[in-house]
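Researcher: We're reviewing a set of sequences before deciding which ones to prioritize for further study. For each one, I'd like a predicted 3D structure that I can look through quickly. This is Methyltransferase FkbM domain-containing protein. If possible, include the structure in token form so it fits the rest of the review sheet.
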Amino acid sequence: MLLLLRILNKLNLLSFLNLTSGKVYNGVRYSIPLHGRTGLGLLGDFEPWMLSILRKLIPEVKGKVFVDVGMNIGQTMLAAKSVDSGLAYLGFEPNPSCVVILKRLVECNNIRDVKIIPAAVGASDGVSVLYRSKNQMDDGEATIIQHFRDTAGKEQLIVPTISTKTIQNIGLGKVGVIKIDVEGAEVDVVEAFMPIIEKDHPYVICEILPAYSNQNTFRIERQQRLVMAMKGAGYKIFRIETTGSLKPIDDIGVHDVLDDSNYLFVSDENIKTIESIFSRVTSVK
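Model: Here's the predicted structure for Methyltransferase FkbM domain-containing protein, in token form for your review sheet.
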């Protein structure tokens, strides 16, 4: 089936079709609805390090909410639900094309306890501009941060932004994990969620893309703000290696290694738990 889809895509025929394929995540088979090319990424290989992290963290947060900020087309949702189908899951995704796939994905597979909020997360309720590829509607690099990367030639969509205060008003429950993959808006999400972070002490899985050079002061300043905010809340930083093991670090710094873009922030009260469930974690002093 995957070969057929690739052939149809190469012939530019896939965009005219709505199909359903299948994919196994962590031993669980899911139906994958495709809306033209949108959703095709669900059939690719899922990041093994993420699945390794989820297998270890999710049992530790039973009864708590998993918050996914930047759902894209639901890769993390499927992986997390394959670990614990009863996990309470709250996701945010501002890209309307992705939201269509997410809703169909939930319906096709009868996935329970999932709430999808079609919005970005910010300091206040309002609207933002989402910059995405004109050729890839479910663009995984779409961003609401104008200067994070070159946005020339990108399609611009006006999308809603929701504040954590509003989220709390709809009844969030106690949060166990926050996963953040928002292409440059990480610090905005962390600052918006800080009241919840300080109250619930969730594990925070966050992608922070490299600054690449000292000249990229925009990225450097934003990542420094994020690190300071998390340290101020009593958190330690671990770099997630491609093997799924953790490396304790004091700062993110300036680097150019794309594989070193994923981090786990752990509150001081959870350090001992992390050291016990990750056999390759070095003790943090």
